[in-house]
Specification:
This protein is mostly beta strands. The chain folds into 2 domains: about 5-155, Sandwich (Immunoglobulin-like); about 160-275, Immunoglobulin-like. Helices cover about 5% and strands about 50% of the residues.
Length: about 280
């Protein structure tokens, strides 16, 4: 029996839903993976490259929708409004045929039909696989869907939000963030977790994380229990969401200190959190 699976790439992240790695037989890429576009009264035009580096031709259908993130930070389609960016985007072409090993260009224009309000306006450009499904081994066939977010900004984006609470578990920690502003906010930078008695201090810990992030692959400081890049999942304007930080390995029971070295939106972060794992 042939099973069907659904692959969605959105917000610059690939999510494989119960999909074994070996059946991910096609290779498709989009560049860039998101757009931040200033908009006003005049049309704005942008383009993206859709790349088929696989061995078989691809057919891709193009559609545009309004979206937000649900409580688990998954993309969900929502009804458009008079101020949602999807109402103002015209894309061409709406169907792409991409031979194996080739690249095609998708262009889109933003043409507001009403006066845009100050703040962020969102759309998602969806690329859906057409034609026959991709066939993988073990009797599995599947189609892909790629979502490329477009943020249309009116005014000067000021990105500030508040960390309301911090939670810690052996396999992950999380930050509950409230965004009362008009533009999305996300982390940038790195984190490190040390046993409380081995914490090197904010200055030395920050230096260690900066050194660790210089290689192409993040190299954990030797004294840290866990370290890595902070997640870049956005908290949308007007939303309050928990952003999880998955850890490389489970933490044993004990006392710990976590250091954030980077930014939350426009706000610099050199902040520590003390916590206990039971």
């Amino acid at each position: 029996m042939v099973r069907s699976k659904y692959i969605c790439l959105a917000l610059s992240m690939i999510t494989l839903l119960a999909m074994p790695r070996e059946v991910f037989a096609f290779q498709i890429a989009v560049s860039p993976m998101k757009f931040e576009v200033p908009i006003g009264g005049r049309p704005v035009t942008r383009s993206m490259k859709v790349i088929n580096s696989g061995k078989t031709p691809l057919e891709v259908g193009v559609s545009i929708g309004h979206w937000d993130l649900d409580e688990n930070n998954n993309v969900r389609s929502i009804k458009p409004t008079a101020q949602s960016l999807d109402q103002w985007i015209v894309a061409s072409p709406l169907k792409l045929k991409i031979p194996a090993g080739k690249t095609r260009t998708l262009r889109f224009s933003i043409r507001p039909y009403t006066k845009p309000s100050i703040g962020e306006h969102r759309a998602m450009i969806f690329l859906d696989q057409g034609g026959a499904p991709t066939k993988g081994p073990k009797g599995v066939s599947f189609r892909f869907r790629i979502g490329v977010p477009v943020y249309g900004n009116v005014g000067n984006p000021v990105r500030r939000a508040a960390i309301k609470s911090f939670v810690a578990k052996p396999a992950r920690v999380g930050f509950n963030i409230k965004n009362d502003g008009k533009y999305n906010v996300r982390f940038s930078g790195d984190y490190g977790i040390w046993e409380a008695t081995k914490f090197p201090g904010v200055k030395r810990g920050t230096q260690q994380l900066r050194t660790a992030s210089k290689p192409k692959t993040f190299v954990k400081p030797k004294t840290a229990m866990s370290a890595g890049e902070l997640p870049t999942t956005p908290v949308l304007p007007g939303y309050q969401r928990t952003i999880p930080v998955p850890l490389k390995s489970n933490l044993a029971p004990g006392e710990y200190k976590m250091l954030l070295a980077g930014k939350l939106g426009d706000t610099p972060l050199n902040k520590t959190y003390s916590f206990t794992v039971q």
